[in-house]
Amino acid sequence: MFAWNFVLNQSGPTEFVFRMFTAIPKFQVLLFLLFLLLYLMILCGNTAIIWVVCTHTSLRTPMYFFLSNLSFLEICYTSVVVPLMLSNILGSQTPIPLAGCGAQMFFFVTLGSTDCFLLAVMAYDRYVAICHPLHYTLIMTQKLCIQMVVGSLALALSLSLQLTALIFTLPFCGHLREINHFLCDVPPVLRLACADTRVHQAVLYVVGILVLTVPFLLICVSYVFITLTILRMNSAEGRHRAFSTCSSHLTVVLLQYGCCSLVYLRPRSSTSEDEDRQIALVYTFVTPLLNPLIYTLRNKDVKGALRNAIINKAASDTH
After folding, report:
1. Residue 319 is assigned to a structural domain of this protein
2. Residues 6+ apart with CB under 8 A from 56
């Protein structure tokens, strides 16, 4: 309630609008169809991961529990942004109320931060599985797995609520302001404030370090120990299998952390609004789309479960 009180008590503009991608009708239709197709693929791909993990007992392990939670996060994450974005591509610049902008920022930052924390949790899971295989089931209990997911969400909620509340204490000049973005992200909204934002920029950097740098360093430390353990393995097949499961996770990590760091941790003097918008397209569409593809194409267990599910479904439909 603290954040929303600030949003509703603003004496400046009551609405924002998003800058259009293009004013050319043909390009608007093409962009709409492209982003709609990507969004539907994200929904289908991540829903398939959740469905397979929930319906196949062989995949009821901590690794796939975290993967299904990651897929659920990706669905929520894109759904906070894409439907409103699609409505603005075809139509005119539909205004978003100040409270709606605050709500979108809050959920976007919360879900994105939880995503980053969960990737660090998944790295810890891989560390325990490879470096301490005999104690894996004792350490990675169902209770601990649930606690780590809930803890990631709780920490993200806390940081996001405070950051959103702080941003919307700022005065915004004029009745209607244009955001040079397709969502109410923190940097473009900060640019519209008609006040000194140095404290707010500093807080954003601190939150960025907590959400991006600290988990990334923990992931790096985990993978140093993982790599050393894998190199000591006698079996070539064991080394290949271990590297295969880890490479999928590392690919997702580099995409997610790399793009987010470019937007949130670069000095403001070296950033361009158009660049931020282009990079945001990557972690809004490309990363959530690649997650299920990377994990299914590089994971024999998931591929096998999906194949069996499709065969069983087809067999049941023919009878």
Report:
1. no
2. 305, 308, 309
* Nearest-angstrom CA–CA distance, 41 and 141: 33
Measured distance CA(280)–CA(243) in Å, rounded: 30
Split into its structural domains, the chain has a count of: 1
Residue at 318 is within a domain: no
Residues 6+ apart with CB under 8 A from 290: 251, 252, 255
**Any domain includes 315:** no
Q: Return the closest-CA partner of residue 260 out of 110, 78, 112.
A: 112
CA distance 300 to 314: 21
Cβ-count burial of 143 within 10 angstroms (0-12 exposed, 13-18 middle, 19+ buried)? exposed
* Residue owning tokens 């169902």: 142
36: tokens are 């709609």
Helix (H) or strand (E) holding 231: helix 214-231
Q: Distance from first CA to last CA of the chain, Å, rounded? A: 55
Segment 230-269, tens digit of pLDDT: 888 777 777 777 777 677 778 788 888 887 887 787 776 6
| Assigned token pair, 316 | 């049941």
Global pTM reads 0.86
Q: Hey, what are 313's tokens?
A: 């479904």
pLDDT at position 9 is 46
Output the six-digit token pair for 125. 């899971």
Distance of CA 46 to the CA centre of its chain: 12
- 104: how many CB neighbours lie within 10 A of its CB? 18
Of residues 196 and 249, more confidently modeled:
196
Q: Locate tokens 């809004």: which residue?
A: 284
Domain extent, residue 124, equals 2-309
Q: 24 exposed, middle or buried (CB, 10 Å; 0-12, 13-18, 19+)?
A: exposed
- State the Rg of the chain over Cα: 21
100 found inside a domain: yes
**φ, ψ at 193 (rounded to 5°):** -70, 135
| Domain harbouring 219, CATH code | 1.20.1070.10
180-206 as b/e: b if 16+ CB within 10 A: ebbbbbbbbbebbbeeebeebeebbee
